[in-house]
Amino acid sequence: MQPIQSLGYNVYFEENLESLLPFIEARGYSQILVLVDRNTNDNCLPVLQNAIPDLIHYDIIEVDPGEENKNIDFCIGVWKTMLDFGADRKALMINLGGGVVTDMGGFAASTFKRGIDFIQIPTTLLSQVDASVGGKTGIDLDNVKNIIGTFTQPQAVFISTEFLKTLDERQLVAGFAEIIKHGLIQDKDLYETCKSVDINNVPADLIYKSVQIKNNVITQDPTEKGLRKILNFGHTIGHAIEGYSLYNDANPLLHGEAIAIGMICEAWMSYKFTGLSEESLNDITNTFLSKYPQYVYSAEFYDSFLELMKNDKKNEDNKIGFALLKEIGDCTYNVYIDEQDIKSALDYYIEAAQLYYKL
Amino acid sequence: MQPIQSLGYNVYFEENLESLLPFIEARGYSQILVLVDRNTNDNCLPVLQNAIPDLIHYDIIEVDPGEENKNIDFCIGVWKTMLDFGADRKALMINLGGGVVTDMGGFAASTFKRGIDFIQIPTTLLSQVDASVGGKTGIDLDNVKNIIGTFTQPQAVFISTEFLKTLDERQLVAGFAEIIKHGLIQDKDLYETCKSVDINNVPADLIYKSVQIKNNVITQDPTEKGLRKILNFGHTIGHAIEGYSLYNDANPLLHGEAIAIGMICEAWMSYKFTGLSEESLNDITNTFLSKYPQYVYSAEFYDSFLELMKNDKKNEDNKIGFALLKEIGDCTYNVYIDEQDIKSALDYYIEAAQLYYKL
């Protein structure tokens, strides 16, 4: 597969990261730092080690896995370790992991000594289709996701389905939600294909297609002034539910699981406000309910959900803006919905899920 | 005085910040946050309040004054307060203060929700001539200055000598060191003028000239790939002494006091390695010694100074690079000096100061 050209860098699709070594060698970096979490240290580092063998020296920085650790404390730990390793401005950071590692590593690199180069090697399905293009880096603060960050492009991204073999099914299913989303907002055929894919064996060309869609959007709107907002379909409500779950559930929802719920709620809004047909609403609802576990929240938490939504970066002047579907494959944005309708959308998921699971 | 055009924004020289109100009104910000420290809250905020009267609402964020507070903990506090105020992406941050406020406020703004607009109103002589152009934002970490930061340009800068009336003489003298530096690296006439200026009454046109010199350099090299390094004259050694003093002295050196020492040391290096005449070395040494208090450090700390220098952002491959004078008004950069000679330069200051104060 040809590399996808993004904003000044390539996304390589290579099982064994063949282009990584020549890429690094051509750049003359003073030093290489590899950021991993415990899981990718064990499961993914061997693939990287094969790609950049002994002739290249690198230091490892390890963080704890999990969204709850994508915070400023861990980021400070990463910065201090970079200092301890004596990293200078010509150092390279390779972020090997899921979204926590690529988002936080990207932020740490983009702010260390006012910015050093970094390469993203996303190892989860979610991060491959979501975090690989767009140049967003970030960490969470006070329960608000990605509230601190920068827009900084990596030097390159490498995607290998080899890493997906190390994931459990729950993670694969969660990540798959972003692929379905890319179909829903821009490509009906992709959405239809998604319905019957074996999630334990996602074909590389489906990931390629998904990255291509996102890349087309973000290269048209690098700093999220307009069009790019369609990528937030499902995310306004999804992020709030995710934030809530992260701090209240012993076994919190994964990002993809939360946005699957968000997409059901926002599909209902699309049906109410932007012309999505009832048939499409039902199809979307059933597609997600058939793949994702039921989640239950009580109406008494709606106000705290709304608070979280208001803190979302995409809002302005305290109104809550949504990206909504006109039909499957066509998405609009800057649709401002009032609080009562948001609550009704939250009700819709609860009722639809109850009905589905009762059947 | 005409505004100075920097990288996409203007530096206005206005006693009463006349252009600020129309500037803000034209932009339609959703919200205005003003970052101050305790001193500027008391002494400088009234000038700002006159410039943007009641018709504009703004919220105040206050931090503690002093370089020791330009750290990640205070920055987290600023971010959290921005969240508490419900700041969205169309909010404006006005940083009203010295380098601590403008550097940290610039960093907080440039990373909050991946970047909101900010205006710098530097209120100390140092920050007016040093932090007003160049787009550097930053905070300190683990005793290393400005190690975390971004290159982000403000929307505008406002300079008023009105604020200088609130400063004590020590701060004025310290800030004046950067004006002398701008003379030394690019403008012999400015340097000669500096020798006889009444520091309690620095004329606005001297500040203007100094900002112009810095602006000419940084617009040619916005991200410090080359030429811009001449602005670091005196800073490699100066930063190390400043970092050391900050953590070891009850009453630590101010930035300008530390780089005055650094300039004496690096003038000696210039004499040894880049052709500065002995006469000029003596002239520079006496100029600084006549204005700045004697500082004493022992040779037993040289190794820790060197450690701090190695962590400085400007170094690559663990070599210590310097910007050095070829003559007064002409500076070169990327001169790599070995450790023994750096120690001799540190000795030179101690001996020159002893001799001067004995006279």
TrEMBL record, chains A, B:
Gene Ontology molecular function: any one: 3-dehydroquinate synthase activity
Domain 3-dehydroquinate synthase N-terminal: 61-172
EC annotation from Swiss-Prot or TrEMBL: 4.2.3.4
Subcellular location: Cytoplasm
Source organism, top-level taxon: Bacteria
Alphabetic keyword roster: Amino-acid biosynthesis, Aromatic amino acid biosynthesis, Cobalt, Cytoplasm, Lyase, Metal-binding, NAD, Nucleotide-binding, Zinc
Pfam assignment, any one: DHQS_C
Catalytic reaction equation(s): 7-phospho-2-dehydro-3-deoxy-D-arabino-heptonate = 3-dehydroquinate + phosphate
Keyword Amino-acid biosynthesis annotated: yes
Catalytic EC class: lyase
Pathway: Metabolic intermediate biosynthesis; chorismate biosynthesis; chorismate from D-erythrose 4-phosphate and phosphoenolpyruvate: step 2/7
Cofactor: NAD(+); Co(2+)
NCBIfam families from the UniProt entry: aroB (TIGR01357)
Function summary: Catalyzes the conversion of 3-deoxy-D-arabino-heptulosonate 7-phosphate (DAHP) to dehydroquinate (DHQ).
Record PANTHER family: 3-DEHYDROQUINATE SYNTHASE, 3-DEHYDROQUINATE SYNTHASE, CHLOROPLASTIC
Descriptive protein name: 3-dehydroquinate synthase
Gene name as annotated: aroB
